[in-house]
Amino acid sequence: MMAIGIKQWIQQVTDRALEILDLKSEGIPLDDLISQCHAVLSRRGEATGLALAGSVVASWQALESNQHLSFFQALIAEFGPDQERLQQAIADYQKNVDDVNVMRLHQAAEAKRQELFRRINAAPNGLQTLILMREALRRLLREHPELKPIDQDLVHLFTSWFNKGFLRLERIDWQTPAAVLEKLIQYESVHEIQGWDDLRRRLAEDRLCFAYFHPVIPDEPLIFVEVALVQGMSDAIAPLLDSPPAPPIAADTAVFYSINNCQPGLAGVSFGNLLIKQVVSVLQAEHPRLKRFVTLSPIPGLRLWLETEGREFLHRFESSDDETVLKSIVAQYLTSGNGAKLKDPVARFHLGNGATLERINANADLSSRGQQQSFGFMVNYLYELDDIVRNHEQLMESGQIATSKDVQQLLKKTRKHQLKELSHDA
């Protein structure tokens, strides 16, 4: 073993496990996978433990999807906290409340599956497997809320493993390896990329793309943002996607027009706020003429809100051509909710990051998706670096939403109209 090196030996054991599993057309038996998980935790030797963890990775990859639920149920039943150790730690803490017993209680309360996940993470392809494992888990949570502790364990670990110190910001351009470019096309979920020619346009001199990567999975973008360098604040998406390339020399505004989380298994682990702030810093250094940093964002929850909670306004969107009235209703929706729990997910994200609700744009997205989700409305969120911290704290502490004067006027119009209707009804 020493002659070939520990890492090579571990990889050979994992590869051999995959070869054996490939011979089993029926897939890996669930009982074997559970036994392997127990074996991983029982071994103290690092090399043997890593090799066993590699076998767990291979076995999970070969597991049939209809066995995922049973696997997660076994993690709940067999890999929770050591109850005997936990009870002893509780008793010791009750006898003597000191830092040592607090730490022992904390360690005893940790589920054994967390250590299992740590050991899987150290194996080849372990981290990517855990991300896929959580993706499978999340599909089951609605019907099986009893599995929530596993989700919490994984989020706890991912939050540490994917903190800013580990993430690497990269500029994506036409020289980026094709495997990564293909993934941009695959993962773009806001404004679909229509093949390679469309992607080439989005990576031109006046269109930039930045992504976060993790060193353990260097070919898998975690999140990426597309930026247009333009003059003035964009009020429609089509010109950003369709206009011919132009030198960005005269640009005074950077428009963040698409942000995409690439790994469903990392949902709830926030990268977007870090990404936007870091990209703003890069753009300021590379393009000192830029004066504004804004988004051109969709409003994905607008139609659903109108059809459920805002039914009194729905007929206006379907019949009225008064843009000011419609914008005032959109403004009410975007500011509805309790502070950090705003109803619209995109508004919640940007306003929670400290942006200002700057402008509402009608006829901004004429695509079928834009019409279906928000009747074509889009919104600009403004990132003023001097105001971000204050805006964030006001939202979190008092529920106060940062809005421009134009949006404030729209909200006043909505309130006046509601009071008028109440008076008429009375």
Q: Number of helix segments?
A: 20
Task: Calculate the terminal CA-CA distance, rounded to whole Å.
Answer: 87 Å
What is the CATH homology-level superfamily of the largest domain?
Answer: Malonyl-CoA decarboxylase, oligemerization domain
Q: Provide the CATH topology of the largest domain.
A: Butyryl-CoA Dehydrogenase, subunit A, domain 3
Radius of gyration: 26 Å
CATH class of the largest domain: Mainly Alpha
Which strand order do you get reading across the main beta sheet? 1-2-3-4-5
Sheet/helix structural class: alpha+beta
Main sheet attributes: strand count, strand direction, barrel closure: 5 strands, mixed
Give the oligomer, counting copies of the same chain as homo and different chains as hetero: single chain
What is the topological layout?
Elements: H1 6-22, H2 30-42, H3 46-62, H4 68-78, H5 83-95, H6 99-109, H7 112-122, H8 126-141, H9 148-161, E1 168-172, H10 178-187, H11 195-202, E2 207-213, E3 223-230, H12 238-242, E4 253-261, H13 272-286, E5 292-295, H14 302-308, H15 311-319, H16 323-334, E6 337-338, E7 341-342, H17 345-352, E8 356-361, H18 368-374, E9 378-382, H19 388-398, H20 405-425
Parallel strand pairs: 4-5
Antiparallel strand pairs: 1-2, 2-3, 3-4, 6-7, 8-9
Helix pairs in contact: 1-3, 2-3, 2-7, 3-7, 5-6, 7-8, 7-9, 8-9, 14-15, 16-20
Features:
3 domains; two-stranded antiparallel ribbon; five-stranded mixed β-sheet; disordered C terminus; Aminopeptidase; Butyryl-CoA Dehydrogenase, subunit A, domain 3; alpha+beta; 9 strands; 55% helix; 426 residues
